[in-house]
Amino acid sequence: MRSLFELRSCLEAQASQLAAVRGEPAVFAEFEDHFTRWHDLLRGPAVSDEQVSDYFALIRRFDEAVNKATDNSFLVDAMENLRVHVARVRRMAGHSQSRLEASASEHALIARAISRRDAALALHATHVHLHNSVEHFRHSWRPAERDAPEGQRTTTATETPR
User: Fold this and answer.
1) What is the C-alpha separation between 103 and 153, in angstroms, rounded?
2) What share of the chain in percent tops pLDDT 70?
3) What mean pLDDT value characterizes the chain?
4) CA distance 46 to 39
5) For position 138, what pLDDT does the model report?
6) d(Cα 16, Cα 107) in Å, to the nearest integer?
7) How crowded is residue 47: how many other Cβ atoms within 10 Å of its Cβ?
């Protein structure tokens, strides 16, 4: 698991920087608006599974816009391969409304940085988002791992999930 997030950090940070330099500001300003609206929605009462699916669809569209803005087919290919694994991890961790709310705010900041052509902020906002994502996974994943029968555990009690 550690390796997945290390690679994700490198690739997505580079992609957000390139998108800030090469992307169309108006496209990412619109994503900032969408993520801000989602942040407000996710702060409300319980969110339905359909709304969660819609939110993840927005993230996919954002990722596709970042991919296009990088204008780097090698980076896009690597990120697409990585996203298959990230989606699996996301399913394993489940979702919490508070994490989704924070994610929407983090994505809004990344989109804002890209729309303002601030590559440094895009990089740092991406790192913060990925850090929070991996921490959520670690906290979500460990209880289920701890409860697994001894022969089915993939880590020891003191080991970090990989």
Assistant:
1) 29
2) 85
3) 86
4) 13
5) 82
6) 11
7) 18
Q: Are 134 and 5 in contact (CB under 8 A)?
A: yes
Q: Catalogue all structural domains in the chain, each as residue range(s) with its CATH number.
A: 2-152 (1.20.120.530)
**pTM score over 0.85:** no
CA 108 to chain centre: 12
pLDDT in tens, 71-127: 999 999 999 999 888 887 777 666 788 889 999 999 999 999 999 999 999 999 999
Cα 16–Cα 136–Cα 155 angle in degrees, nearest 5: 115
Using CA atoms of 43, 58, 128, 134 in order, give the dihedral in degrees to the nearest 10: 90
Cα-based torsion angle of the residue sequence 65, 66, 68, 71 in order, rounded to the nearest 10 degrees? 160
Structure tokens at 134: 């991996």
In the chain, the percentage of residues whose pLDDT exceeds 90 is 60
At 146, list the tokens.
């701890």
DSSP per residue, 82-99: HHHHHHHHHHHH---HHH
| Residue written as token pair 């997030």 | 5
Cα–Cα separations (whole angstroms), residue 47 to 26, 101, 106: 29, 10, 19
Q: How far apart are CA 36 and CA 14, in angstroms?
A: 23
Q: How far apart are CA 44 and CA 136, in angstroms?
A: 20
